[in-house]
């Protein structure tokens, strides 16, 4: 199963990606995490891993990819056959405890242009990726909805939106639900940073609240790890919730 994890900036996409990946790996799933957020520099830290080379470099780098796209009037195909997890070249992923991490690429300097090349490569990769029943791919998407416009989500099996306790995030649920429906992808929600005081408002603000499949409470250890740049680990409460969730929804 290929799952796109999305939401507004700061809602906890990388946190949920990390915790869910560790839960699935603990259930003997082989997990591929695809960091497709060109502005995110912390996912590998949360996983306790080194960051691999940007996958766009395998096709010659951003400028070469953009040239190929322009010459073909944006119809260039970088993949001519199906790929498996085993086909990912050495150096373009790092691995730890049954979790592999690959990165589309990053914006590294001012004035280097848009990230269209990286989005095109990773979107085609996701569309051509074939998984077996013991494998799950988690895509940590960029903040907002641009990835829908780039057609990156067309190749996934499920949209998982992380919702935090903010008006912006709750309002965005309606937009992302509509975009998911337009490409015929099921959408579910994980509420993040919940408290006894905000949970009711969050649940009541989401249309089709039955699509809320997990709630992650405001966790002091997770907050401290995020502040100090340390690896995230599952607390017993979160581990129990996510194990139950993965058994029901995230089987290949």
Automatic annotation (TrEMBL):
GO cellular component entries: cytoplasmic side of plasma membrane; cytosol
InterPro entries in the cross-refs: CobQ/CobB/MinD/ParA_Nub-bd_dom, CooC, P-loop_NTPase, ParA/MinD_ATPase
Keywords annotated in UniProt: ATP-binding, Nucleotide-binding
Molecular function terms from GO: ATP binding; ATP hydrolysis activity
SUPFAM superfamilies with a match to the protein in the record: P-loop containing nucleoside triphosphate hydrolases (SSF52540)
The CobQ/CobB/MinD/ParA nucleotide binding domain, residue ranges: 5-230
GO biological process per UniProt: negative regulation of cell division
Record Pfam families: CbiA
PANTHER family registered for this protein in UniProt: AAA+ ATPASE DOMAIN-CONTAINING PROTEIN, SEPTUM SITE-DETERMINING PROTEIN MIND HOMOLOG, CHLOROPLASTIC-RELATED
Protein name: ATP-binding protein
Species the sequence originates in: Acetobacterium paludosum
Organismal lineage: Bacteria, Bacillati, Bacillota, Clostridia, Eubacteriales
């Amino acid at each position: 199963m290929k799952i796109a994890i999305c939401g507004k900036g700061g809602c906890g996409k990388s946190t949920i990606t990390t915790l869910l990946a560790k839960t699935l790996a603990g259930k003997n799933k082989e997990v591929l995490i695809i960091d497709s957020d060109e502005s995110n520099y912390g996912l590998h830290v949360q996983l306790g891993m080194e960051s691999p080379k940007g996958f766009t470099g395998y096709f010659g780098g951003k400028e070469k990819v953009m040239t190929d796209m322009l010459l073909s009037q944006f119809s260039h195909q970088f993949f001519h056959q199906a790929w498996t997890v085993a086909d990912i070249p050495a150096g373009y992923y790092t691995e730890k405890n049954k979790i592999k991490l690959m990165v589309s690429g990053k914006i590294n300097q001012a004035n280097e242009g848009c990230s269209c090349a990286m989005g095109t490569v990773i979107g085609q990769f996701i569309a051509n990726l074939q998984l077996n029943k013991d494998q799950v791919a988690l895509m940590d998407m960029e903040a907002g909805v641009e990835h829908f416009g780039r057609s990156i989500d067309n190749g996934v099996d499920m949209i998982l939106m992380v919702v935090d306790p903010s008006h912006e995030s709750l309002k965005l649920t309606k937009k992302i639900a509509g975009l998911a429906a337009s490409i015929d992808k099921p959408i579910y929600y994980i509420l993040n940073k919940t408290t006894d005081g905000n949970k009711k408002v969050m649940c009541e603000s989401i249309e089709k609240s039955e699509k809320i499949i997990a709630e992650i409470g405001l966790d002091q250890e997770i907050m401290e790890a995020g502040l100090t740049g340390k690896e995230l680990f599952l607390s017993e409460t979160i581990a129990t919730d996510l194990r139950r969730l993965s058994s029901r929804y995230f089987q290949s």
